[in-house]
Amino acid sequence: MQEVQDKYVFPRDSKESERLNAQHNLLVKVTQNTLIHPSIPKEQLFSIADIATGTGIWLDDVSKCLAQTSPAQRYYHGFDISADQFPKTPGKIHFSVQDLTVPFAQEHWNRYDLVHVRLVIAALEEDEYQLAIANIHAILKPGGYIQWEELDEETYISETNPVIQEIHRCLAVGFEAEGKSSQASAKIFEESQAIGFLDVERICYSSDWNIDLRPDTEDRIAAIIGSLYQRLLFRTGQVLDEETAAEKAADLIDQHRRLCAQGIGVFYRHFKVSLCWA
């Protein structure tokens, strides 16, 4: 098994698995149930990989969807830097530990029609994107596709909400301290074109198309405050100890809930970059 250093900034426990699954469900709703972008021909997908797969929920949903819309024998493989959140009963889906900044084993080269990547903004350093994209290119079949989904610094939008302003401040300080990019989708768009990907498209989805998404959006923001925000406060020296970070996060969640109850809401913006390698 590949030895890797876990760059994940969130805890690895059952609560985090629940957060990942809830986040997936919201992102699917935000994109109006677009698991695979319409520009990618589903009938041509027979081998599919998911990087930063977490619990494997995207692969599970995709396998069920394709079984209904385009029945065929398919191979599914999820990769993550840690096996801690892999499902205990994976069924027909395969899982492997893989650092995206390290080349994949030769058995995966030129193997996949579609490689899906989601939310590595808090794991990859800015100068690692080019290497990550090159490693993904190596496992794609000629003519294969990448679908890469990220949240950028403008993901949580509100001009009047001080909670969102504080999240932006914390992430800006934290990402700069750790050498990470707060404009992940723009970085991917730029680097993928430089390496030679064709038909690169950067698409923005937003939760404001459906007011019914507001409760889920508010819950996801609270979850981010209690996880990424709290951990970045301590990891990047914005507070002196973990206890203070936890207290600041709890206070911010309380403020967030009060503002939401007053109707001072936010909407959730999600970027998806679809790429084709010819």
UniProtKB/TrEMBL annotation:
Residue ranges occupied by any Methyltransferase type domain in the UniProt entry: 50-146
InterPro entries: Methyltransf_12, SAM-dependent_MTases_sf
A Gene Ontology BP annotation from the UniProt entry: methylation
Keywords (A to Z) from UniProt: Methyltransferase, Transferase
Keyword hit for rRNA-binding: no
Tagged with keyword Membrane: no
GO MF terms, alphabetically ordered: methyltransferase activity
PANTHER family in the cross-refs: METHYLTRANSFERASE (PTHR43591), METHYLTRANSFERASE DOMAIN-CONTAINING PROTEIN-RELATED (PTHR43591:SF50)
Protein name, as recorded: LaeA-like methyltransferase
Organism: Aspergillus heteromorphus CBS 117.55
